[in-house]
Amino acid sequence: MIKPRVAIICGGKSSEHEISCVSANGILNSIDRNLFEPVLIGITKSGKWLFLPDDTNFAIINGALPTVPESGVEISITSQGLFSGGKALSIDIAFPILHGPYGEDGTIQGLFEMIAVSYVGSGVLASAVSMDKSYAKPIFAAASLKVAPGIVVTSKDFELPSNLTFPLFVKPARSGSSRGTTKVKQKSELAAAVNIALEFDTKVIIEQSVVGKEIECAVLQADGKLTVSQVGQILLSDKFEFYDFQAKYLDNSMQLVVPADLPAGIEAKIQQAALTAFKAAGCEGLARIDFFYSDQGEIIINEINTMPGFTPTSVYPKLIEKSGITYQQLITKLIQTAQNRSLSITR
After folding, report:
1. CA distances for 149 relative to 105, 163, 216, 217, 311, angstroms
2. Which residues does the annotation say bind Mg(2+) 2 (predicted)?
3. Annotated binding-site members for ATP
4. Which fold has domain 129-146+211-340?
């Protein structure tokens, strides 16, 4: 049997470059090599595509995050596919484990559509609108999901509406892993927080802080059906104001509690809201949907991640594992779903 060649593509030009490398390391170490032949491709921070050795180690070592080296064997992309050293890489399926802009936002999905390579995850439009919170929130609201009040600004010159009260969250509209996000407790801190967010994006969301529990839910599209996970709750150490980059990736104090400590009947409502969001955004393959369960008993959707963190210990695989699907099985199911799906141009 000829095994399909799966391109695990990681790195990229976004601020989540390093986390993408760590996710790729997990997939590379766990992919079922009896079924698939992995090909590791790294995109450098400057945008070069490199053909990486199969034994590349992208683990976090002593707190140091891995990156794709800036030099190596370059890859060229043509209408005939991906080539390196004058030879076709003969990629059958792409697994773009890229987080944030240039990977999770529809750009690389559009490239795959143009060169007719099947790929894991959501298509161009679902990826783009899910990445941009300023577009995702109206879609969620139109699907009768509750969102936190907020405004979109593009500079530090703006008027804060009277319905927004401190504390507020200031975050880039199209960034992930909480990069560039600040919790603002008073007006004097607001301008500096907006400037920080503007370093990551030209569009910034100023949003009402929600007091309550941070809740996450995983959705998997595989075997012709949608599987929605149990609901998990993020518990943070008191030293963190919110679930920021440090808490997510560099500190081991975060706990994922599954099932979440919720009143009777609320988990089912959150699971239904996750499915509603997945369908409303037009997602495919996988997504992690993040919610707040407020102290007033409201279910408020925060965001949808179409290519969530994917290490063996990341929230998405851990939630799916509670449904009886191991990390290796999850990788297999996602690749097989990509194999069976038509590219959007032919649908």
Report:
1. 24, 8, 20, 22, 32
2. 303, 305
3. 133, 169-171, 177-178, 207-214, 302-303
4. D-amino Acid Aminotransferase; Chain A, domain 1 (3.30.470)
